[in-house]
Automatic annotation (TrEMBL):
GO terms for molecular function: serine-type endopeptidase activity. SUPFAM superfamilies: alpha/beta-Hydrolases (SSF53474), Tricorn protease domain 2 (SSF69322). This is S9 family peptidase. Keywords: Hydrolase, Protease. One of its GO terms (biological process) is proteolysis. The keyword Protease applies. Belongs to the peptidase S9C family. The keyword Nucleotidyltransferase does not apply.
Length: 666
């Protein structure tokens, strides 16, 4: 049977797994499976269960329920959020979250718990008692105590106010969440027996980032930022006793930022950074808290938390706790599930598959979602040291489609640093022919490519392009020193690596037509696209996605600009505007000659559209062929989770742009 080429819409056919969670015994796993629909222009998600004692062991629990974020109520029951009976009024002042209950042995999901706020992270504590993160809108009026007529009048007024927003703090918007001004996450203790919803994270200005429950369910640690004023935030970490209601605070000294925390044998361990060495991109260290909550350094392995990149992968947290601090980290271009113990030692729990995006459990039974080489996600079980793939969601697709295989190699850059790179060849590659090529640069810059399945690259390879990509300095996976491109090195070390890598690929792969090479990248990759066209004309065409062009404006418009971008450039618009401008691609736009396409979303608050607009206008003013495709209602995640039709149009725009300009070079 002839295999099909990877098509532009195939990202919707590939199943995406995520939100892996385990039953109290650790023997059963629940997770989500998501599939796109071009017809509905959306995504459908259902909950699946793996239970070795069940026949079949892997089975779908929900169908059409839009089942997300499952959590085990007990060994045989799951809860998941979803407004199945359309209880929401649609008014922001009356939003609520409905959690449904469904037995593992089948049956209909029924409403179980209704919370009067937008909730996430529901965690059972004991019978009828739960912890949950809930959204508070500090600008919303208090409707309690009003009679029905007064309440209706106030709700009408709120409806009429939907056409404007008030900003008076930082950050006032966050990518993917929209406007967050005066909106705070809080930690709530829910008691269904008494009907009480108690806010544990007291303080009007505290914004919850995360929480963790100890193994005996006697205390909870929670952390976040407190708005000391409208524009200044202070990291705080608390431990609350569920037994007696007492609360203690870890003395972070306005110096440490908390990333995560877990209890190990009753002791609190948290990951923290100071930013004193590598700014806001510093890798965390592990700190151990004593009984009095003072803390000492436990280990500093310089880990890069999280998995490697893909445009068709789901994810989720990977904590287990109890006998160790569990986490997923990227090592080079491979992700592993690791465990830190109280003696400061780190062991690898699972690294048998090329990419692990979400893992749970402890020896002898570990579940994880991973990608084998050149393959989409599946569920794996590691038991007694042996790994077994227990799902086949994407096997039919792989059996019927021609998938290009990644060829890995390393080279030493001009500073003596080893760089990992890859080449994807078309399935019908003929060494006697010449081919156009696409250079794809990842975002971050602290992220990493690996050897899983990347739909856009597979699509281009299917069209007859050779695709190449690498992890230059600035990438994660090799420690803080490798990732350090900040300050004077920004746009220097990384750019040199990327250009030297391109030279290396052209030397190794003589079949590439050097006149027909295109380049693309998003986010930091978009910064590099804009930087490249101002520093070289070696590429026949460039597609700059969700890009950065002007750090003076970028640091004053986006959700992370006022701290992360200032840290990255190590400058600000008042004391050192010349330095910020020198590291801004817009400063070199008058040198550009390369035909450039801009892909942008109007709700991208990470790399705001103003930067792309500035770069577009600069190129057009200087006579450079340029075009922008602006997607309404999309954010920074367009290429990974945008509306399916928008994702098709995005990839069609980029491919058509390359086809047109590279054809002219033949």
């Amino acid at each position: 049977m002839d295999k099909q080429k990877v098509a532009i819409e195939d990202f919707a056919k590939i199943k995406k797994l995520g939100s892996l969670t385990l039953s109290p015994s650790g023997k059963k796993a629940a997770f989500t499976v998501t599939e796109g629909s071009l017809e509905d222009n959306g995504y459908h998600t259902d909950i699946w269960v793996y239970d070795e004692a069940h026949t079949p062991a892997l089975y779908r629990l929900t169908a059409g329920e839009d089942g997300k974020a499952p959590v085990f109520l007990d060994e045989d029951t799951l809860l998941f959020p979803g407004d199945r009976k359309k209880r929401h009024t649609g008014n922001a002042a009356e939003k609520e979250t409905v959690y449904n209950r469904i037995p593992l042995n089948g049956g209909e999901a029924e409403p179980f718990l209704v919370l009067p706020f937008i909730a996430s992270g529901l965690t059972p504590v004991s019978d009828g008692v739960y912890l949950v993160s809930g959204m508070r809108d500090l600008s919303a009026p208090d409707l309690s105590g009003l009679d029905e007529a007064e309440k209706a009048k106030k709700l009408k007024e709120l409806e009429e106010e939907k056409d404007y927003e008030v900003f008076d703090e930082l950050p006032f918007w966050i990518n993917g969440r929209g406007v967050t001004n005066k909106k705070r996450q809080g930690l709530y203790l829910i008691n269904t027996a008494t009907g009480e919803n108690t806010l544990l994270s007291e303080g009007k200005f505290f914004d919850l980032h995360g929480f963790t429950l100890d193994e005996n369910h006697t205390k909870v640690a929670y952390w976040g930022n407190e708005f000391e004023s409208l524009n200044t935030q202070k990291a705080r970490l608390f431990v609350y006793s569920l037994a007696d209601g007492s609360r203690g605070e870890v003395p972070l000294e306005n110096r440490y930022r908390v990333g995560n925390a877990q209890f190990i044998e009753g002791k609190l361990v948290f990951t923290g950074t100071t930013g004193e060495k590598y700014g806001s991109s510093e890798n965390p260290a592990f700190y151990l808290c004593a009984d009095d909550l003072s803390f000492t350094l436990l280990a500093a392995p310089d880990p890069s938390f999280g998995g490697v990149g893909s445009d068709i992968a789901g994810g989720g947290d990977s904590t287990s706790g109890g006998d160790g601090f569990y986490y997923v980290e990227t090592k080079g271009y491979h992700s592993a599930y690791s465990k830190l113990t109280l003696d400061g030692k780190i062991e690898t729990v699972a690294d048998d598959i090329n990419i692990i995006s979400n893992a749970r459990g402890k020896a002898p039974l570990v579940f994880f979602i991973g990608m084998e080489k050149d393959s989409p996600q599946e569920l794996y079980v590691k038991k007694d040291g042996r790994v077994e793939k227990v799902s086949a969601f994407n096997e039919e697709y792989m059996d019927t489609h021609e998938v290009a295989h990644t060829e890995h190699f390393t080279f030493i850059d001009s500073d003596g640093v080893e760089i990992d790179g890859w080449v994807l060849y078309p399935g019908d590659f003929d060494p006697e022919k010449t081919y156009p090529a696409i250079f794809d640069v990842h975002g971050g810059p602290q992220s990493a490519y690996g050897e899983g399945f990347f739909h856009e690259m597979q699509y281009w390879a299917g069209l007859g392009y050779i695709v190449f990509f690498c992890n230059p300095r600035g990438s994660s996976g090799k420690g803080g020193g490798f990732a350090d491109i900040y300050g004077d090195n920004y746009g220097v070390r990384d750019y040199n690596d990327l250009m030297e890598f391109t030279d290396e690929v052209l030397k190794r792969v003589s079949q590439i037509d050097v006149k027909r090479v295109a380049m693309t990248g998003g986010s930091y990759g978009g910064f590099m696209a804009n930087w490249i066209i101002g520093h070289t004309d070696r590429f026949a065409a460039v597609a700059s996605q969700r890009s950065i062009s002007n750090y003076i404006s970028k640091c004053l418009t986006t959700d992370i600009g006022y701290y992360h971008n200032l840290s990255a450039i190590q400058a600000d618009p008042w004391s050192s505007p010349e330095k910020m401008w020198a590291h801004s691609p817009l400063a070199y736009a008058d040198k550009a000659k390369t035909p450039t396409l801009f892909i942008q979303s109007d709700e991208d608050y990470r790399c705001w559209m103003g930067d792309a607009v500035q770069m577009l206008q600069a190129l057009l003013m200087h006579g450079v062929p340029a075009r922008m495709c602006l997607f309404h209602g999309e954010n920074h995640e367009l290429s990974r989770s945008g509306k399916p039709r928008h994702r098709v149009r995005r990839l069609k725009e980029i491919t058509s742009w390359f086809d047109e300009w590279l054809h002219r070079c033949e």
